[in-house]
Amino acid sequence: MQLRSEALPDVDGVWVRPADARGATGTGVLVLSGSSGRVETQRATVLAGVGATALSYRWFGAPGQPHGIWELPLESFDWAVGRLAPQCDRVVLVGVSKSAEAFLLYAADDPRVDAVVALSPSHVAWAAVSPGPDGELRPQHSSWSRAGRALPYVPYDDDVAVTGDPPAFEPVYRTSLDTFADRVEAATIPVERFFGDVLLVAGGDDRVWPALDFARAVEARRTAYGLPTTLVTHPDAGHRVILPGEGVAAGGAAMQRGGTEPADRALGLLAWPEIRRVLGAPEH
After folding, report:
1. Residue 38 half-sphere exposure, CB side, CA atoms within 13 Å?
2. From 80, 109, 196, 259, which residue has the greatest number of CB atoms within 10 Å?
3. pTM, whole model, 2 decimals?
4. Which residues are in the BAAT/Acyl-CoA thioester hydrolase C-terminal domain (predicted)?
5. Is the dihedral of CA 266, 238, 100, 14 positive or negative?
């Protein structure tokens, strides 16, 4: 399928869509990166290749965007959803890691969203991963805000030793849930408030955070409410899912992500039919 790609005029980002409207599915996709914040041009191109109108942009750290993932306003996604919704029949959010966390929160309160694809997601809101306006990481603050108010969050247990070179952060997240068990209920993402489709994709060897456990928690909460939810997993895959047609992602902070390229690709291949289904792509 021939695609048309164009830079966004007002932010660092890209539109990618079928060149011939007859190949379009009518689905608009907002696809964002994780904590790197980078423009997901490659993933947007892959999704547009099955007929979606895909939009991606640098969602923090650029002019006109929040400075980092520190009480980041969920309303900062409104403009992108607002561009997709009028020209598409459906709006799907595709996020990974921190943007998956954000999108599950966002979808719970925005009826314009029809589905969420959450890769390596979280079931709770976490403390900020970026310094605040004063350049400091402590005291801890929420990653997210809504209507000017910080959302409840699970803090990080600073007594957990981060080990490995590069470091593995998975034990920090797992231990923090136990240490701050009294904060978990308030910080749990209210996924039962989103009535659309949720697709969860998580690897069993994720060393950034225990994404598979997190995804299962989301699945269990939504299933209890009878809401459409699908979980795709692979025991040997890590934090970075590689979809068919994608290369290996480069850059980002130095950390262990787990998995191997073959396993990460295998998970992407397992998830691909479900992603196509959510996007309304024709069977092939």
Report:
1. 11
2. 259
3. 0.97
4. 86-244
5. negative
SS3 letters across the chain: CCEEEEECCCCCEEEEEECCHHHCCCEEEEECCCCCCCCCHHHHHHHHCCCCEEEEECCCCCCCCCCCCCCEEHHHHHHHHHHHHHHCCEEEEEEECHHHHHHHHHHCCCCCCCEEEEECCCCECEECCCCCCCCCCCCCCECEEECCEECCCECCCCCCCCECCCCECHHHHHHHHHHCHHHHHHHECCHHHCCCEEEEEEECCCCCCCHHHHHHHHHHHHHHCCCCEEEEEECCCCCCCCCCCCCCCCCCCCCCCCCCHHHHHHHHHHHHHHHHHHHCCCCC
Residue 263's contacts (CB-CB under 8 Å, 6 or more residues apart) are 203, 205, 234, 236, 237, 238
Distance in angstroms (rounded) separating the CA atoms of residues 132 and 13: 24
Digit-by-digit pLDDT tens for the chain (284 residues) are: 899 999 999 899 999 999 988 888 899 999 999 999 999 999 999 999 999 999 999 999 988 889 999 999 999 999 999 999 999 999 999 999 999 999 999 999 999 999 999 999 999 999 999 999 999 999 999 999 999 999 999 999 999 989 888 999 999 999 999 999 999 999 999 999 999 999 999 999 999 999 999 999 999 999 999 999 999 999 999 999 999 999 887 767 777 899 999 999 999 999 999 999 999 998 76
Domains of the chain, first to last: 3-279 (3.40.50.1820)
* Lateral strand order in the sheet of 229-234: 3-7, 13-18, 53-57, 27-31, 90-96, 115-119, 197-203, 229-234
